[in-house]
Amino acid sequence: MRITVIGTGYVGLPTGVGFAELGNDVICLDVDENKIKTLQSGKLTIFEDGLEELFVKNTKNGKIKFSTSFSESIPDADLILIAVGTPPHPITKEADMRYIKAAAAELAHHLKGYTVVAVKSTVPVNTGNMVENIIRRENPNADCDVISLPEFLREGFAIHDFFNPDRIIVGANTERARNVIAELYAPFKDKSTILYVSRQSSETIKYASNAFLAMKIQYINEMADFCETSGADIYEVAKGMGLDSRIGAKFLVPGPGYGGFCFPKDTNAMAYMGKFNGVDLSLIETTIKGNERRKINMAKRILDMVEDIKNPTIAVLGSAFKGGTDDCRESPALQIIEIMLAHEVNIKLYDPEAMPNTKAILKDMVTYTNSAYEAISGADVLAVLTDWDEFKSLDLLKIKQLMKRPQIADFRNIFDCKKAKDLGFEIKSLGRKL
Q: C or N: which end of the chain has fewer Cβ atoms within 10 Å?
Protein backbone atom coordinates (compact mmCIF):
# COMPACT_ATOMS: atom_id res chain seq x y z
CA MET A 1 0.00 0.00 0.00
CA ARG A 2 1.15 3.57 -0.70
CA ILE A 3 1.01 5.59 2.51
CA THR A 4 1.73 9.23 3.22
CA VAL A 5 2.24 10.28 6.83
CA ILE A 6 1.85 14.01 7.49
CA GLY A 7 4.00 14.90 10.50
CA THR A 8 7.35 13.43 11.58
CA GLY A 9 7.15 13.72 15.35
CA TYR A 10 6.89 11.11 18.09
CA VAL A 11 3.79 9.60 16.41
CA GLY A 12 4.36 10.16 12.72
CA LEU A 13 7.94 8.95 12.43
CA PRO A 14 7.62 5.63 14.33
CA THR A 15 4.32 4.99 12.53
CA GLY A 16 5.84 5.65 9.12
CA VAL A 17 8.87 3.48 9.84
CA GLY A 18 6.61 0.73 11.18
CA PHE A 19 4.42 0.62 8.08
CA ALA A 20 7.52 0.65 5.87
CA GLU A 21 8.85 -2.35 7.79
CA LEU A 22 5.59 -4.14 6.98
CA GLY A 23 6.32 -3.71 3.27
CA ASN A 24 4.37 -0.59 2.43
CA ASP A 25 5.75 2.31 0.41
CA VAL A 26 5.80 5.26 2.81
CA ILE A 27 6.42 8.96 2.41
CA CYS A 28 6.77 11.03 5.57
CA LEU A 29 5.71 14.59 4.82
CA ASP A 30 6.53 17.61 6.96
CA VAL A 31 6.61 21.36 6.36
CA ASP A 32 9.70 21.67 8.57
CA GLU A 33 12.51 21.73 6.00
CA ASN A 34 15.25 21.21 8.57
CA LYS A 35 13.59 18.06 9.89
CA ILE A 36 13.20 16.62 6.40
CA LYS A 37 16.77 17.45 5.42
CA THR A 38 18.02 15.71 8.55
CA LEU A 39 15.90 12.63 7.87
CA GLN A 40 16.93 12.57 4.21
CA SER A 41 20.56 12.61 5.33
CA GLY A 42 19.95 9.40 7.26
CA LYS A 43 19.76 10.90 10.74
CA LEU A 44 16.87 10.66 13.19
CA THR A 45 15.27 13.76 14.64
CA ILE A 46 13.98 12.03 17.79
CA PHE A 47 15.18 9.29 20.08
CA GLU A 48 12.88 6.31 20.46
CA ASP A 49 14.09 2.93 21.63
CA GLY A 50 14.40 0.52 18.68
CA LEU A 51 13.64 3.14 16.02
CA GLU A 52 17.10 3.69 14.59
CA GLU A 53 17.64 0.14 13.28
CA LEU A 54 14.35 0.06 11.39
CA PHE A 55 14.84 3.63 10.16
CA VAL A 56 18.25 2.83 8.67
CA LYS A 57 17.02 -0.41 7.13
CA ASN A 58 13.97 1.08 5.43
CA THR A 59 15.63 4.27 4.22
CA LYS A 60 18.35 2.18 2.59
CA ASN A 61 15.89 -0.15 0.85
CA GLY A 62 13.73 2.77 -0.28
CA LYS A 63 10.55 1.74 1.54
CA ILE A 64 10.40 5.08 3.34
CA LYS A 65 11.15 8.52 1.93
CA PHE A 66 10.86 12.07 3.24
CA SER A 67 9.44 15.17 1.61
CA THR A 68 8.17 18.70 2.17
CA SER A 69 6.06 18.65 -1.00
CA PHE A 70 2.31 17.95 -0.86
CA SER A 71 2.18 17.81 -4.67
CA GLU A 72 4.73 14.97 -4.68
CA SER A 73 3.47 13.08 -1.61
CA ILE A 74 -0.33 13.13 -1.84
CA PRO A 75 -1.60 12.22 -5.36
CA ASP A 76 -0.40 8.59 -5.43
CA ALA A 77 -1.31 7.75 -1.83
CA ASP A 78 -3.91 5.10 -1.04
CA LEU A 79 -3.90 6.20 2.58
CA ILE A 80 -2.97 9.52 4.17
CA LEU A 81 -2.28 9.60 7.91
CA ILE A 82 -2.53 13.00 9.56
CA ALA A 83 -0.16 12.90 12.55
CA VAL A 84 0.50 16.57 13.23
CA GLY A 85 0.58 18.18 16.65
CA THR A 86 -2.48 19.35 18.56
CA PRO A 87 -0.82 21.38 21.33
CA PRO A 88 -2.90 22.82 24.16
CA HIS A 89 -4.17 26.37 23.93
CA PRO A 90 -2.13 28.42 26.44
CA ILE A 91 -5.25 29.73 28.19
CA THR A 92 -8.21 27.39 27.66
CA LYS A 93 -6.06 24.20 27.34
CA GLU A 94 -8.30 23.01 24.49
CA ALA A 95 -6.56 21.26 21.59
CA ASP A 96 -5.13 23.70 19.06
CA MET A 97 -6.42 22.55 15.67
CA ARG A 98 -4.50 24.90 13.38
CA TYR A 99 -2.12 22.22 12.09
CA ILE A 100 -4.94 19.74 11.45
CA LYS A 101 -6.89 22.38 9.52
CA ALA A 102 -3.84 23.43 7.49
CA ALA A 103 -2.97 19.85 6.58
CA ALA A 104 -6.54 19.07 5.54
CA ALA A 105 -6.82 22.20 3.40
CA GLU A 106 -3.50 21.61 1.65
CA LEU A 107 -3.87 17.89 1.00
CA ALA A 108 -7.34 18.41 -0.48
CA HIS A 109 -5.89 20.14 -3.54
CA HIS A 110 -3.69 17.17 -4.42
CA LEU A 111 -6.03 14.18 -4.01
CA LYS A 112 -6.33 11.91 -7.03
CA GLY A 113 -8.39 8.75 -7.15
CA TYR A 114 -9.97 7.16 -4.12
CA THR A 115 -8.05 7.95 -0.93
CA VAL A 116 -8.62 7.27 2.75
CA VAL A 117 -7.65 10.22 4.94
CA ALA A 118 -7.06 9.02 8.49
CA VAL A 119 -6.72 11.41 11.43
CA LYS A 120 -4.12 9.83 13.71
CA SER A 121 -3.50 12.88 15.88
CA THR A 122 -5.36 13.08 19.16
CA VAL A 123 -8.27 15.39 18.36
CA PRO A 124 -11.57 16.55 19.85
CA VAL A 125 -14.81 14.79 19.01
CA ASN A 126 -16.21 15.70 15.58
CA THR A 127 -12.79 16.59 14.16
CA GLY A 128 -13.45 14.02 11.44
CA ASN A 129 -16.50 16.01 10.40
CA MET A 130 -14.42 19.19 10.33
CA VAL A 131 -11.67 17.62 8.21
CA GLU A 132 -14.21 16.20 5.80
CA ASN A 133 -15.90 19.60 5.44
CA ILE A 134 -12.54 21.30 4.77
CA ILE A 135 -11.66 18.78 2.08
CA ARG A 136 -15.11 19.12 0.44
CA ARG A 137 -14.80 22.89 0.53
CA GLU A 138 -11.32 22.92 -1.01
CA ASN A 139 -11.96 20.12 -3.50
CA PRO A 140 -15.66 19.30 -4.06
CA ASN A 141 -14.76 16.50 -6.46
CA ALA A 142 -12.41 14.66 -4.09
CA ASP A 143 -13.07 10.90 -3.91
CA CYS A 144 -12.14 10.17 -0.31
CA ASP A 145 -13.29 8.94 3.06
CA VAL A 146 -12.18 10.59 6.29
CA ILE A 147 -11.71 8.23 9.21
CA SER A 148 -10.43 8.35 12.78
CA LEU A 149 -7.43 6.08 13.45
CA PRO A 150 -6.12 7.07 16.91
CA GLU A 151 -2.62 6.12 17.98
CA PHE A 152 -1.87 4.24 21.19
CA LEU A 153 1.93 4.32 21.11
CA ARG A 154 3.69 4.81 24.42
CA GLU A 155 6.77 6.99 24.10
CA GLY A 156 9.82 4.90 24.82
CA PHE A 157 7.93 1.82 23.63
CA ALA A 158 6.49 3.14 20.36
CA ILE A 159 8.15 0.56 18.12
CA HIS A 160 7.17 -2.30 20.41
CA ASP A 161 3.61 -1.01 20.63
CA PHE A 162 3.34 -0.53 16.87
CA PHE A 163 4.08 -4.20 16.24
CA ASN A 164 2.25 -5.45 19.34
CA PRO A 165 -0.91 -3.34 19.62
CA ASP A 166 -3.37 -3.99 22.44
CA ARG A 167 -6.13 -2.96 20.06
CA ILE A 168 -6.67 -1.10 16.81
CA ILE A 169 -9.54 1.39 16.86
CA VAL A 170 -11.03 2.45 13.53
CA GLY A 171 -13.66 5.16 13.28
CA ALA A 172 -14.93 4.66 9.75
CA ASN A 173 -18.41 5.37 8.43
CA THR A 174 -18.15 3.49 5.11
CA GLU A 175 -17.48 -0.11 4.15
CA ARG A 176 -15.04 1.07 1.49
CA ALA A 177 -12.81 2.76 4.06
CA ARG A 178 -13.05 -0.19 6.45
CA ASN A 179 -11.82 -2.50 3.69
CA VAL A 180 -8.72 -0.34 3.15
CA ILE A 181 -7.91 -0.42 6.86
CA ALA A 182 -8.54 -4.17 7.01
CA GLU A 183 -5.91 -4.60 4.29
CA LEU A 184 -3.51 -2.24 6.07
CA TYR A 185 -3.74 -4.16 9.34
CA ALA A 186 -3.95 -7.64 7.85
CA PRO A 187 -0.60 -8.58 9.48
CA PHE A 188 -2.21 -8.01 12.89
CA LYS A 189 -5.58 -9.70 12.40
CA ASP A 190 -4.63 -12.82 14.37
CA LYS A 191 -2.89 -11.08 17.28
CA SER A 192 -4.86 -7.92 17.96
CA THR A 193 -8.49 -6.86 18.22
CA ILE A 194 -9.58 -4.50 15.47
CA LEU A 195 -12.63 -2.57 16.59
CA TYR A 196 -14.71 -0.66 14.05
CA VAL A 197 -16.78 2.14 15.54
CA SER A 198 -18.18 5.53 14.54
CA ARG A 199 -15.80 8.45 14.07
CA GLN A 200 -17.09 10.18 17.19
CA SER A 201 -16.66 7.07 19.31
CA SER A 202 -13.13 6.54 18.01
CA GLU A 203 -12.16 10.12 18.81
CA THR A 204 -13.62 9.78 22.32
CA ILE A 205 -11.91 6.43 23.01
CA LYS A 206 -8.48 8.03 22.73
CA TYR A 207 -9.23 10.85 25.18
CA ALA A 208 -11.16 8.61 27.56
CA SER A 209 -8.29 6.11 27.64
CA ASN A 210 -5.58 8.66 28.37
CA ALA A 211 -7.67 10.44 31.00
CA PHE A 212 -8.37 7.12 32.75
CA LEU A 213 -4.68 6.16 32.78
CA ALA A 214 -3.76 9.57 34.15
CA MET A 215 -6.29 9.07 36.94
CA LYS A 216 -4.80 5.66 37.66
CA ILE A 217 -1.32 7.18 37.99
CA GLN A 218 -2.57 9.93 40.28
CA TYR A 219 -4.43 7.35 42.37
CA ILE A 220 -1.38 5.14 42.93
CA ASN A 221 0.69 8.22 43.78
CA GLU A 222 -1.85 9.14 46.45
CA MET A 223 -1.75 5.57 47.74
CA ALA A 224 2.05 5.81 47.88
CA ASP A 225 1.73 8.88 50.10
CA PHE A 226 -0.66 6.94 52.32
CA CYS A 227 1.73 3.99 52.53
CA GLU A 228 4.53 6.28 53.70
CA THR A 229 2.46 7.38 56.69
CA SER A 230 0.82 4.04 57.49
CA GLY A 231 3.78 1.68 57.29
CA ALA A 232 2.46 -0.20 54.27
CA ASP A 233 4.58 -0.84 51.16
CA ILE A 234 3.20 0.53 47.89
CA TYR A 235 4.62 -2.33 45.82
CA GLU A 236 2.91 -4.92 47.97
CA VAL A 237 -0.29 -2.89 47.79
CA ALA A 238 -0.03 -2.43 44.02
CA LYS A 239 0.63 -6.13 43.49
CA GLY A 240 -2.44 -7.05 45.51
CA MET A 241 -4.54 -4.52 43.63
CA GLY A 242 -3.21 -5.57 40.23
CA LEU A 243 -4.19 -9.20 40.75
CA ASP A 244 -7.79 -8.05 40.48
CA SER A 245 -8.61 -8.45 36.77
CA ARG A 246 -10.94 -5.47 36.98
CA ILE A 247 -8.01 -3.25 37.95
CA GLY A 248 -4.94 -4.75 36.28
CA ALA A 249 -1.29 -4.31 37.19
CA LYS A 250 -0.25 -1.67 34.67
CA PHE A 251 0.17 1.99 35.63
CA LEU A 252 0.33 1.13 39.33
CA VAL A 253 3.89 2.41 39.76
CA PRO A 254 4.44 5.50 41.94
CA GLY A 255 6.43 8.41 40.57
CA PRO A 256 6.82 12.17 40.60
CA GLY A 257 3.65 12.70 38.56
CA TYR A 258 2.53 11.95 35.03
CA GLY A 259 3.99 13.97 32.18
CA GLY A 260 4.91 13.88 28.52
CA PHE A 261 2.94 15.47 25.74
CA CYS A 262 -0.12 13.21 25.85
CA PHE A 263 -1.48 12.85 29.38
CA PRO A 264 -1.30 16.51 30.46
CA LYS A 265 -2.58 17.72 27.10
CA ASP A 266 -5.35 15.16 26.78
CA THR A 267 -6.66 15.42 30.33
CA ASN A 268 -6.86 19.20 29.97
CA ALA A 269 -8.54 18.90 26.58
CA MET A 270 -11.03 16.35 27.94
CA ALA A 271 -11.85 18.66 30.84
CA TYR A 272 -12.39 21.52 28.38
CA MET A 273 -14.66 19.36 26.21
CA GLY A 274 -16.66 18.44 29.30
CA LYS A 275 -17.25 22.10 30.11
CA PHE A 276 -18.03 22.88 26.46
CA ASN A 277 -20.65 20.14 26.39
CA GLY A 278 -22.04 20.95 29.84
CA VAL A 279 -20.83 17.68 31.39
CA ASP A 280 -19.31 17.40 34.87
CA LEU A 281 -15.93 15.67 34.54
CA SER A 282 -14.84 16.29 38.11
CA LEU A 283 -12.67 13.16 38.37
CA ILE A 284 -10.50 14.37 35.49
CA GLU A 285 -10.34 17.91 36.85
CA THR A 286 -9.29 16.60 40.28
CA THR A 287 -6.61 14.45 38.65
CA ILE A 288 -5.15 17.46 36.86
CA LYS A 289 -4.98 19.49 40.07
CA GLY A 290 -3.54 16.59 42.05
CA ASN A 291 -0.80 16.00 39.48
CA GLU A 292 0.25 19.64 39.65
CA ARG A 293 0.37 19.51 43.46
CA ARG A 294 2.50 16.38 43.35
CA LYS A 295 5.35 18.05 41.48
CA ILE A 296 5.34 20.91 43.98
CA ASN A 297 5.44 18.36 46.79
CA MET A 298 8.34 16.46 45.16
CA ALA A 299 10.36 19.66 44.87
CA LYS A 300 9.64 20.51 48.52
CA ARG A 301 10.81 17.07 49.66
CA ILE A 302 14.16 17.62 47.95
CA LEU A 303 14.55 21.17 49.22
CA ASP A 304 13.78 20.03 52.77
CA MET A 305 16.90 17.84 52.63
CA VAL A 306 19.14 20.87 52.06
CA GLU A 307 17.29 23.56 54.01
CA ASP A 308 20.21 23.92 56.44
CA ILE A 309 22.77 24.51 53.68
CA LYS A 310 23.50 27.82 52.00
CA ASN A 311 23.55 27.58 48.19
CA PRO A 312 23.32 23.77 48.16
CA THR A 313 24.21 21.65 45.14
CA ILE A 314 21.54 19.24 43.95
CA ALA A 315 22.41 16.46 41.51
CA VAL A 316 19.47 15.58 39.28
CA LEU A 317 19.41 12.39 37.24
CA GLY A 318 16.89 12.60 34.44
CA SER A 319 15.13 15.34 32.53
CA ALA A 320 13.04 13.36 30.02
CA PHE A 321 9.51 12.70 31.22
CA LYS A 322 10.31 8.99 31.36
CA GLY A 323 13.05 6.57 30.35
CA GLY A 324 13.32 5.40 26.75
CA THR A 325 12.61 8.75 25.11
CA ASP A 326 14.27 12.15 24.75
CA ASP A 327 10.92 13.94 25.03
CA CYS A 328 10.97 16.67 27.68
CA ARG A 329 7.54 18.13 27.00
CA GLU A 330 5.60 18.48 30.26
CA SER A 331 8.32 16.48 31.98
CA PRO A 332 7.78 16.20 35.76
CA ALA A 333 11.57 16.25 36.13
CA LEU A 334 11.88 19.64 34.44
CA GLN A 335 8.91 21.05 36.32
CA ILE A 336 10.43 19.95 39.63
CA ILE A 337 13.75 21.49 38.61
CA GLU A 338 12.07 24.78 37.71
CA ILE A 339 10.32 24.89 41.09
CA MET A 340 13.61 24.28 42.90
CA LEU A 341 15.38 26.96 40.86
CA ALA A 342 13.11 29.55 42.46
CA HIS A 343 15.21 28.95 45.60
CA GLU A 344 18.93 29.51 46.03
CA VAL A 345 20.18 26.15 44.77
CA ASN A 346 22.72 24.95 42.23
CA ILE A 347 21.61 22.07 40.03
CA LYS A 348 23.90 19.66 38.19
CA LEU A 349 21.97 17.64 35.62
CA TYR A 350 22.45 14.51 33.55
CA ASP A 351 20.16 12.60 31.19
CA PRO A 352 21.39 9.88 28.79
CA GLU A 353 19.37 11.07 25.77
CA ALA A 354 17.45 14.25 26.51
CA MET A 355 20.23 16.80 27.03
CA PRO A 356 19.70 18.69 23.73
CA ASN A 357 15.97 19.08 24.40
CA THR A 358 16.68 19.98 28.02
CA LYS A 359 19.13 22.73 27.09
CA ALA A 360 16.55 24.23 24.74
CA ILE A 361 14.18 24.58 27.73
CA LEU A 362 16.41 25.33 30.71
CA LYS A 363 19.10 27.26 28.81
CA ASP A 364 21.93 28.11 31.25
CA MET A 365 19.90 27.82 34.45
CA VAL A 366 21.60 24.53 35.42
CA THR A 367 24.99 22.89 35.01
CA TYR A 368 25.00 20.13 32.41
CA THR A 369 27.23 17.10 32.89
CA ASN A 370 28.38 14.19 30.74
CA SER A 371 27.64 11.35 33.15
CA ALA A 372 25.65 10.44 36.21
CA TYR A 373 28.76 10.32 38.38
CA GLU A 374 29.88 13.76 37.17
CA ALA A 375 26.51 15.17 38.18
CA ILE A 376 26.69 13.46 41.58
CA SER A 377 30.22 14.63 42.38
CA GLY A 378 30.18 17.26 45.13
CA ALA A 379 26.39 17.21 45.53
CA ASP A 380 24.56 17.69 48.81
CA VAL A 381 21.63 15.60 47.66
CA LEU A 382 20.94 13.30 44.71
CA ALA A 383 17.47 13.42 43.13
CA VAL A 384 16.44 10.66 40.72
CA LEU A 385 13.60 11.95 38.55
CA THR A 386 13.62 9.77 35.40
CA ASP A 387 13.56 5.98 35.32
CA TRP A 388 16.44 5.24 32.95
CA ASP A 389 17.85 1.71 33.20
CA GLU A 390 21.34 3.24 33.26
CA PHE A 391 20.63 4.76 36.67
CA LYS A 392 19.63 1.42 38.18
CA SER A 393 23.16 0.06 37.81
CA LEU A 394 24.88 2.93 39.63
CA ASP A 395 27.21 1.96 42.47
CA LEU A 396 25.88 3.28 45.79
CA LEU A 397 29.27 3.10 47.47
CA LYS A 398 30.84 5.19 44.70
CA ILE A 399 27.94 7.63 44.94
CA LYS A 400 28.61 8.07 48.67
CA GLN A 401 32.28 8.68 48.06
CA LEU A 402 31.50 11.38 45.49
CA MET A 403 28.86 13.29 47.45
CA LYS A 404 29.33 15.96 50.09
CA ARG A 405 26.43 14.53 52.08
CA PRO A 406 24.95 11.04 51.64
CA GLN A 407 21.38 12.03 50.80
CA ILE A 408 19.13 10.60 48.08
CA ALA A 409 15.66 11.61 46.96
CA ASP A 410 14.82 8.50 44.95
CA PHE A 411 11.54 9.44 43.26
CA ARG A 412 11.75 6.56 40.80
CA ASN A 413 12.46 3.93 43.47
CA ILE A 414 15.50 2.55 41.66
CA PHE A 415 17.76 1.97 44.68
CA ASP A 416 17.65 -0.70 47.36
CA CYS A 417 16.63 1.32 50.42
CA LYS A 418 18.06 -1.14 52.95
CA LYS A 419 21.43 -1.22 51.17
CA ALA A 420 21.46 2.58 50.97
CA LYS A 421 20.68 2.94 54.67
CA ASP A 422 23.31 0.34 55.60
CA LEU A 423 25.86 2.47 53.71
CA GLY A 424 24.85 5.49 55.75
CA PHE A 425 22.54 7.26 53.29
CA GLU A 426 19.50 9.26 54.25
CA ILE A 427 17.10 8.17 51.53
CA LYS A 428 13.60 9.27 50.62
CA SER A 429 11.57 7.14 48.26
CA LEU A 430 7.92 6.80 47.29
CA GLY A 431 5.59 4.54 49.24
CA ARG A 432 8.21 2.11 50.50
CA LYS A 433 9.04 0.98 54.03
CA LEU A 434 12.46 2.39 54.92
A: C
